[in-house]
Amino acid sequence: MTRSITTLATMFLAGAAAIAPAQAQDVKLPTSMAFTAYDTGTSGFNIAVGVGKMMKDKYGSDVRVLPAGNDVARLAPLRTGRAVLAWMGTGSYFAQEGVFEFGVKEWGPQAIQMTLSTVDCNGLSVGVAKDSGVKEWKDFRGKRLGFVVGSPALNQNALAIIAYAGLTKSDVKIVEFASYGAMWKGVINNDADGAFGSTVTGPAKELESSPRGIVWPELPADDKAAWERVKKVGAFFNPHNTTCGAAIDASKPLKLATYPYPIATTYGTQAADQVYALTKAMITGYDAYKDAAPGSSGLDVKKQTKQWVIPYHPGAVKALKEAGQWTDADEKYNNDLIKRQGVLADAWKAYNNSSAAPEPDKFLAGWMAARKAALAKANLPNGFED
């Protein structure tokens, strides 16, 4: 999946040219397609199902949504061409960067690109047991933070949130659990004091109704230094006024954080006309699925998170331009992200051509050092501080 900077840039420009002119065309979808998504019953899965039903009803395309328990399993069918979209979360960013489970010889940095994504009324943060006495993030020092074994995305997200107060892993007590659900049960059972999740996740509602209760300490955007600390650990987070979720009154929004979830993800190698058709179908068919599942309304083309951490596919760019939702500034930012993917791809190729250690832990450590050096040389942010 590696590409040189020149190859990526050439492919991007060629793809953009291939989908001109910009006038709208009839959407033509395959007779059958597959999506991948989070596990059955999650908001990501339910949103994907709603979009798939719209494509069946409106365009006659049979869509299968394949649930997958982790980011590697969600991306593998997309990588091999057996799926046309993977509905992802922050794992899409980790894949682009070649970190955590993607920092292995079989994967490395992936040329991941976006179509549409969801940001809705909910926030993404660490819910804290109300009886812990925590009101601000500085109060969380010494408290017990839930981690999930084998889920670096969840754990990294939690560390990004507490970084708002300058707290690190060494300032809290890490309590590990076997699963996301077990982690939240651990907070309810007083085995931990905080857990990362969506404000609308079912376990947060359970904590709210338990004797412990729940609070969401705020992360006001006007504290610029605090948000710089958050973004050093989780570059994908943005400030967000949250109006829905456990213990949240819509009339009194909380200043929390969020990132797009789920993200309808593609590879840069996918045909521009295919990605254009998928994106256009989601834009024009919005009214048919916007109420299909909680969060679906966040796919509104006017609500898209642009100038984020992952570039848009040229096919999606064409659809966004037709909808009047793309600017020259968006174009420049997007091209810079394509270049970043090229830097990472070149660094990965050079690292694998060197005497990289075969042991997984040593291989990952060596790659992270090579990655850091390559990004620094290109004057690009690391995104994963030591």
* CA-based shape: globular
Continuous helix count: 13
- SSE sequence, one letter per element: HEHEHEHEEEHEHEHEHEEEHHHHH
Distance between the termini: 26 Å
Rg, Å, rounded? 21 Å
The largest sheet is: 5 strands, mixed
Helix content: 25-40%
Structural class: alpha/beta
Instruction: Give the amount of beta strand, in percent.
Output: 15-25%
Give the integer mean of the pLDDT values.
91
Lateral strand order in the biggest sheet: 2-1-3-12-4
Tally the beta strands.
Answer: 12
Note poorly predicted spans. 1-24
What can you see in these coordinates?
By secondary structure, the chain is of the alpha/beta class. The protein contains 13 helices and twelve strands. The strands form four sheets. The chain has a five-stranded mixed β-sheet with strand order 2-1-3-12-4, sandwiched between helices. Helix 9 packs parallel to helix 11.
